[in-house]
Amino acid sequence: MTLSYDDALARDAADPLGGYRDAFHRHADPVAYLDGNSLGRPPKATLDRVTRAIDRDWGERLIRGWEEGWSERAETLGNLLASACLGAAPGQTVVTDSTSVNLYKVVYAACDLQGGRDEIVIDDGNFPTDRYLVESVARARGMYVRWLSPDPIAGVTHRDLSAALSPQTAVVVLSHVDYRSGAIADLPGLTRLAHDAGALVVWDVCHSAGVLPIDLDRFGVDFAVGCTYKYLNAGPGAPAFLYVAARLLPDVRQPIPGWWSARDVFAMADTYEPALDARRMLSGSPNILGMIGVEEGVRLVERAGIDAIRAKAADLTGMCVDLVDAWLAPRGFAVVSPRDAAARGGHVSIQGPGARKLRDKMVAAGVIPDFRNPDTIRLGLSPLSTSYAELWTAMDTIRSIVGR
């Protein structure tokens, strides 16, 4: 039997995370916002903190702010994020730059550790930035790119990776959650497989940070990068983060060293000596105002608990799949995400006739999804800010549109 609106309301009443919806700013709210996997809603606390920071931290304290906590912000916030979202011990994570810059840094640094090996492995369905940057690093270092072509729904499997690994494989670059289908890659198993072949692994966790447990330390991950403006709700263009395993830090040399990565930032030394911890991966001065959004978003995840967030994500996406099957499949639409909740992240993708036009009609009706060329609509379900009733209303609106 198809879930009713009253059923959705009952789920909201029993939802242990339901109260977190009140933590987000809502002005002229749409009927339903289903794009939190691209840009999360703004936490109310972020708006207050930014105002106070401009008025007091910057406006009153001025440059003294660097001596009053700003200088350590990339590391302290990195440690908070690592503990709340990444399953990582202190000293291995920094908040800095964009995902693109961070990915270039860690892929280049990983290749640098693998002298004598000249291949980088990546799948041809990975996010464009990841593919472009891997090709750029390969050109700069005189290396080769070996491409995987995984199933577009299931993502990279052990068989896919095994077929590509060789004695020349230096680095493998993978996404934890596929940005199109939402498929969750087997992070521990694929990492182990690459290590058995002598390769290092770089994981892109943009679509899993803040919605899935990751456990980087436990599973022996080498490098990871991610953004903060999706499930961490840090705001458009907010600083990203990178992780380098402690066992690799003493030998890591990044390609964009700046004064902020020096062992003594303010020594202005004639020769470069990198910091001993993950700060060696920094380049220029940190984005202090941008980090406020990161901190408040991570604090919400920390309070809610990543396991509770994961449980609601599985439930929301399951409800979405059921409603697509009941209401949209008869109109030619299909789920192009894994049907097993254990294999699916925080969004559900659908395909069908006239998907682009449907997306435009959805937006006009107040339901905001995401669209990916050529014909995929992504329904992003951010557990801290999305209610069951909101999802039900969105799906009912889509049903009405396609039924016309």
Keywords:
404 residues, seven-stranded mixed beta sheet, four-stranded antiparallel beta sheet, hydrolase, 13 strands, Aspartate Aminotransferase, domain 2, transaminase activity, Aspartate Aminotransferase, domain 1, 2 domains, alpha/beta, single chain
Overall 3D form: globular
- Enumerate the spans where pLDDT stays under 50 for 5 or more consecutive residues: none
State the order of secondary-structure elements, H for helix, E for strand: HEHHEHEHEHEHEEEHHEEHEEEH
Give the beta-strand count: 13
Strand content is: 5-15%
| Residue share in helix | 25-40%
Tell me the name of the CATH class of the largest domain: Alpha Beta
Tally of distinct domains? 2
SS element count, helices: 11
Q: What structural class should be given to the helix and strand makeup?
A: alpha/beta
Keywords: Aminotransferase, Hydrolase, Pyridine nucleotide biosynthesis, Pyridoxal phosphate, Transferase
Catalytic activity: L-kynurenine + H2O = anthranilate + L-alanine + H(+); 3-hydroxy-L-kynurenine + H2O = 3-hydroxyanthranilate + L-alanine + H(+)
Subunit structure: Homodimer.
Function: Catalyzes the cleavage of L-kynurenine (L-Kyn) and L-3-hydroxykynurenine (L-3OHKyn) into anthranilic acid (AA) and 3-hydroxyanthranilic acid (3-OHAA), respectively.
Question: What is the element layout, followed by pairings?
Answer:
Elements: H1 5-14, E1 32-33, H2 44-58, H3 73-86, E2 93-95, H4 99-112, E3 119-123, H5 128-141, E4 144-148, H6 158-164, E5 169-175, H7 187-196, E6 200-204, E7 223-226, E8 241-244, H8 288-304, H9 306-328, E9 334-335, E10 347-351, H10 355-364, E11 367-368, E12 370-372, E13 376-380, H11 388-402
Parallel strand pairs: 1-11, 3-4, 3-5, 5-6, 6-7
Antiparallel strand pairs: 2-8, 7-8, 9-10, 10-13, 12-13
Helix pairs in contact: 1-11, 2-8, 3-8, 4-5, 9-11
